[in-house]
Design goal:
TIM Barrel, 245 residues, six-stranded mixed sheet, globular, two-stranded antiparallel sheet, 29% helix
Length: 245
């Protein structure tokens, strides 16, 4: 069993609302400086920079996790994490089919840059990534699970795109064994107020700029024997799906 300081909600320069200097290599480097060992890239409705991100993380000895912040048809944000890049990319292909074909206006919404692990620009995504997809909360969750991933509501303590702010309460279906709190100071209050004692609450930054990435604070104890990055990701996904304690 090993302790991993984590941040499982980070955006790269492929998200139009993120700074251009949020490159995969810069995120991995900053994560190392912050003392993190387990980090996930979760751009809006895409996994396009996850390959470069995983490569950059390996250079710093960090376990990278491929992921996405999915916007459901209800405008709820879901963090979707996967054990492998292949699973994440397969999920992303299905999500792409459910995205609305709205052209991006970089001067208005920001750039959407595909990068390699050496900070070279590979191209730009022409369609805007931040609008809601056509996937409902239940459909998006089921799709992530079908690809071997885990899905849970993001920043439930924020009114914008948070499940509580939109629905007013957690739905009976789908049941989420894991939930994300954005502000660590809200963790215990939300646990008591909403009866979340039997759910796993994560605290992640949702950082869109390097200076918003947090120093090590939140951690998970994972059974990583025999150790490998893949083993850590597999255990993490099982934990978030409620299959492990």
């Amino acid at each position: 069993m090993s302790r991993y300081f984590y941040d499982l909600h980070l955006h790269s320069c492929l998200s139009p609302c993120a700074d251009d200097d949020m490159t995969p290599a810069n995120i991995a480097g900053m994560a190392s400086l912050c003392g993190l060992q387990l980090v996930a890239l979760t751009d809006h409705n895409t996994c396009g920079n996850c390959g470069a991100f995983l490569t950059a993380c390996r250079k710093y000895g960090i376990v990278g996790v491929p992921g996405m912040e999915l916007t459901t048809a209800e405008e709820i944000h879901l963090v979707c994490l996967f054990p492998t890049l292949e699973a994440a990319e397969a999920f992303a292909r299905d999500v792409k089919a459910a995205r609305l074909p709205i052209k991006n206006k970089p001067a208005v919404f920001g750039n959407q840059l595909y990068m390699d692990d050496g900070d070279q620009i590979l191209g730009e995504e022409p369609n805007l990534l931040i609008p809601a997809t056509q996937l409902s909360l239940e459909e998006g969750t089921a799709l992530a699970l079908s690809h071997g991933g885990a899905a849970y509501p993001a920043h439930i303590d924020r009114p914008s795109n948070g499940i509580l702010g939109i629905l007013g309460a957690l739905p009976e279906r789908p049941f989420f064994p894991t939930l994300e709190i954005n502000d660590p100071e809200n963790l215990e209050r939300y646990r008591e107020q909403y009866g979340l004692q039997n759910r796993r609450l994560l605290c992640s930054s949702d950082a869109h700029r390097l200076e918003s990435m947090r120093d090590a604070g939140s951690y998970l104890d994972l059974d990583d024997e025999p150790y490998s990055s893949q083993r850590v990701r597999d255990v993490l996904i099982g934990l978030l799906r409620g299959e492990m304690q």
